[in-house]
Amino acid sequence: MGGGKMIFPNAASLNLPPTRFALKARPYFIGLLGVQALLMVARFLILDVWGALLSLLILTLGTFVLATGAGVDTGYCLYYGLMCLVNGIFDAILFLERAVHVKYPLFSRHAPAVFNAASGVFLVCPIIELAAASRCIVRWTW
User: Fold this and answer.
1) Which of 42, 89, 104, 121 could form a disulfide with 111 if both were Cys (CB 3.0 to 4.6 A apart)?
2) Which of 100, 93, 32 is nearest to 66 (CA)?
3) Quick one: CA dihedral 35, 40, 45, 47, positive or negative?
4) Mean pLDDT in the chain?
5) Residue 104 CB contacts under 8 Å (≥ 6 apart), including other chains
6) pLDDT tens-place string over residues 70-79
7) Could you write out the three-class secondary structure of the chain?
8) Are 81 and 29 in contact, with CB atoms under 8 Å apart?
9) Residue 140's pLDDT band (boundaries 50, 70, 90)?
10) 126 and 85 Cβ atoms separated by less than 8 Å
11) C-alpha 21 chain-centroid distance
12) CB 71 within 8 A of CB 19
């Protein structure tokens, strides 16, 4: 009857120390989350409210990756990485769509400063999200 506990152990009851890789990966995750927080604020400022709200959800999940206090939580890292991957793909599509359908080139002297700032934000967002997703893949496989 008690065999189910051996098959599905409670991960919270396993008080294991973090691996060396988890401790080394923690500063990178903190840096990625910091950049994502800045990009989220920038998205609010350029009035990309939907993108900013999605970034806020991803950022919230990213804080759960680091909430264990020691290293990086592998389960939350997987969820965070998948969300970053999906949102990074959508943001890359959004960037390409913007590049094709706007009045000005992406970075133009004749365009307003807000347009150029928005182009920069739309360029950097998928790069950071896909970098975070790749970092999570490395963490999950090691």
Assistant:
1) 104
2) 32
3) positive
4) 84
5) 110, 111, 115
6) 677 778 888 9
7) CCCHHHHCCCHHHCCCCCCHHHHHHHHHHHHHHHHHHHHHHHHHHCCCHHHHHHHHHHHHHHHHHHCCCCCCCHHHHHHHHHHHHHHHHHHHHHHHHHHHHCCCCCCCCCCCHHHHHHHHHHHHHHHHHHHHHHHHHHHHHC
8) no
9) low
10) no
11) 19
12) yes
Say what the pTM is. Answer: 0.81
**Best CA proximity match to 26, nearest among 65, 76, 81, 75:** 65
Q: What are the backbone angles phi and psi of residue 57, rounded to the nearest 5°?
A: -65, -45
Residue 67 tokens, joined: 């909430």
Q: Count CB neighbours of 123 within 10 A.
A: 16
